[in-house]
């Protein structure tokens, strides 16, 4: 039974993505601290934060859906920053594919929750 946002599979996946990205960025160059590193960490944190906030407002169907849309937007932003990281050689092709697969899974689950929420 789902009692809190933390019980949602989609929250758990997006939270883990956020943690994984945070750890990954520890290896980014220092000059990226206030640009790429900050952007990708903030965008991944926004995914799970928006899911949690939307769940907290779930009594109003439109509110939950609005925050799921925000989560999808942050997910897409994360994908852009990961592309930058790959193209700047901060992550390798395999890491990029692994993160792309995770973002694809999360995006599909957010969309499913959005579509099925009554």
UniProtKB/TrEMBL annotation:
This is Four helix bundle protein. InterPro entries: 23S_rRNA-intervening_sequence, 23S_rRNA_IVS_sf. It holds the Pfam family 23S_rRNA_IVP.
């Amino acid at each position: 039974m789902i009692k809190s946002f933390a019980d949602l599979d989609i929250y758990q996946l997006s939270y883990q993505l956020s943690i994984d990205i945070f750890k990954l960025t520890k290896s980014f160059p220092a000059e990226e601290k206030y640009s790429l590193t900050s952007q990708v960490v903030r965008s991944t944190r926004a995914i799970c934060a928006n899911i949690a906030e939307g769940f907290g407002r779930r009594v109003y169907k439109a509110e939950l859906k609005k925050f799921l849309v925000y989560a999808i937007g942050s997910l897409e932003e994360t994908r852009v920053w990961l592309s930058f990281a790959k193209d700047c050689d901060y992550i390798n092709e395999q890491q990029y594919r692994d993160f792309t697969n995770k973002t694809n899974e999360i995006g599909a689950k957010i969309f499913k929750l959005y579509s099925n929420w009554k």
